Fold YtkA-like.
Amino acid sequence: MKFKYFFSLLLLAGLTSCSTDSEEVIPDNELEGLVKIQTIQNHTHKLELYSANGDLQEGYNKIVFNLQTLDGREMISDAEIQWNPMMHMESMAHSAPKSEINKRTENLYEGYIIFTMAENEIEYWSIDFDYTIDGEVFSLEAPITVLPTERQKVTSFMGLDDKRYVLTLVEPTDPEVATNEVTIGLFQMANMMEYPVMDGYRILIDPRMPGMGNHSSPNNVHLTRFASDDFYHGKLNLTMSGYWRINLILHNEHGEVVKGEPVDEINESSSLYVELEF
């Protein structure tokens, strides 16, 4: 009896082991700090979208996702993937600035999208994924929810050079009373579908508190493009908590003003700005 009992335990352990090995699951540590947004699927695969808070909002969004078989038993870790966000408006449709897709971990992919506006009752965003697995091409598409922000994080504008641009605040996401790293994305709207990263520009920064006499702060550092990523980087000194308007002046590669004005006793704000409140 003891032998039969021992043999049954070995058989059960073997079956359990085989079942675990046949089903690929994402380790918990790969999803740490991420909240699922939604699942998109077709007849063969499903794709799970994640972000830091489980939402998408107008402005900069870092998006993480996985791709797996429809039954969830196999993760697809070697697909070639492209994506395209689309805003469906009453009279037209347009895309948005976006990055290429890179591998984040063994089972996760990541990239960013700059949503230039929030959805409304009649206009909405969708996202398309085209991907190739072992030479076979597939696609996924679904509507997505893009929420408004309380403060201005992204702006689209026509420059003095007659080019249309998109500028977005990337960092800080959690501002402090301190010198903060500030990151801004700058893109040109070449057409309704293409938004290349602009290089060689310079962004002057002048933070002000309109509710506190419009005072500024010392030791801010204007933004320049880093070769290591798509963004412009500088320093933003926030001397107290509250509402800040981050006034900006954009210069092109020739040092010419493309958009924005200096703040002085007469002009309380630049026409180019983003906002923070904490």
Confidence is low (pLDDT under 50) at residues 1-24.
